[in-house]
Amino acid sequence: MESNYRQHVLVADDDPTIGVLMQASLEAQGYSVTVVEDGTAALAAFRAAPADVVLLDVEMPGLSGYEVCEEIRRHWGPDIPVVLVTGHDDIESVEHAYRSGATDFMPKPINWTLIGHRLHYVLRAFRDATERRLAEQRAQRLAYFDTLTGLPNRQSVHELLERELARVRRNINGHSLALLLLDLDGFKSINDSLGHGIGNQMLQRVADRLRNGLRTGDIIGRLTGDACVEAAEGLVARLGGDEFTVVLPYMVRVEDALLIAHRIRELIGRPFVFENRSIVMTASIGIALFPDDGQDAETLLMHAETAMYAAKSEGRNNCQYYRSSLTERAIARLELESELHRALKHKEFCLVYQPQVDACSGVIVGVEALIRWQHPEKGLISPLDFIPLAEDIGLILPIGAWVLQTACADAMRWQAMGLPPIQISVNISPIQFRDPDLQKNILAAHVSTGLPASRLEIEITESTLMEDAAHALRVMQSLRDQGIHIALDDFGTGYSSLQYLRQLPLTKLKIDRAFVRDMPASKADQAIVRSVITLAKALDMRVTAEGVETGDQHAALAELGCHIIQGFYFSGPVPFEGIVGLLQSSSTGVVP
Question: Are 85 and 106 in contact (CB under 8 A)?
Answer without folding.
Answer: yes
